[in-house]
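Supplementary Text 2. Reproducibility record for the structural model of the 72-residue chain.

All settings were left at their defaults, and a single model was retained for analysis rather than an ensemble. We include the record here because the model underlies the residue-level annotations in Supplementary Table 4.
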Amino acid sequence: MINNIEMVKIPISHFRLLQPKGYFQRFYELLPIYQNHRKAFEAVESELYDSFQVTRYSNYQSFKTNKSTYLK
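Retained model, structure tokens:
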């Protein structure tokens, strides 16, 4: 029996989203494009989910709390 394995291409740049530093770097890269913190957050979460089927933060409030901690 032959197993069919589906290959998924993940952009190499998306692997950094798995670490907090890379996640927040991407957020700040997207912020000028979206010109809105919530929309930039949603875009990063979307990239992360599209690549790995996971999210880092359950909601925007959780993201804001962790962003404040990250910036300290």
